[in-house]
Amino acid sequence: MIQSVSTEQNYCLTSELMQDLSGKTDPSELMAIIEMREDRLDHIPLSSNPFIVLFDRPSNKGNLGTMIRSCDALGADMLIITGHAVDLYDPDVVVSAMGSFFNMPVVRIADNTELFAYIDSLKKVYPTFKVIGTTAHHEKPLYHEDLSQPLMIMMGNETMGLNKVFKEYCDVLCTIPMDEKSYASSFNVSCAASILMYEVVRQRSTGNL
């Protein structure tokens, strides 16, 4: 199987060098050098009912990797990363995302103007396209919002939440209601994203709010 894969160059490394390069005490037998993806929103094909996730200024490598994995597992078309964020290609991000890193389209956008122009173009193609912002404050409960139509969910930074500019751009702000007896006021961002995305999947599969 491996012999049939076309490569530009193959090297045979010592186990010590493999361990140093991989950062693991028990590395895999194979290692590959691959080209980074081009950050182009218009290069990502969307489904007939788009489901896009945006993560604003992720600051934790594990959270970003987990977000990528959840997006892949729950059928998001694309994950967009905005602002000053941890390195998408940091080994800790790649490891925590598992194999989903190579399957899930992730695009880094530094210019909000480019992002908003893209969203505006989507609203022209999909008239019911909706941008949903998330907040820990008491806003509309997530399960009362129709998530069966084309949409983008915006997740905020772990500490500061969603950027004010993004909040103002959203069509609606939603929250995951917490138990009234709970000491916790919010979820970890990657945990919250998984709950939000699962609700999207649930509504789209059952057709019920």
Describe the protein's architecture and organization.
With 209 residues, the protein is α/β, with parallel strands linked by helices. It has a single domain (38-206), classed as Alpha/beta knot, CATH 3.40.1280. It is built from 6 helices and 7 strands, in the order H-E-H-E-H-E-H-E-E-E-H-E-H. It has helices at residues 15-22, 61-73, 91-97, 112-125, 164-169, 189-206; strands at 51-56, 78-82, 106-109, 130-134, 140-141, 151-155, 172-175. A 7-stranded parallel beta sheet has the order 3-2-1-6-4-7-5, with helices on both faces. Strand 1 (51-56), helix 2 and strand 2 form a beta-alpha-beta unit. It starts with 14 loop residues before the first helix and ends with a helix.
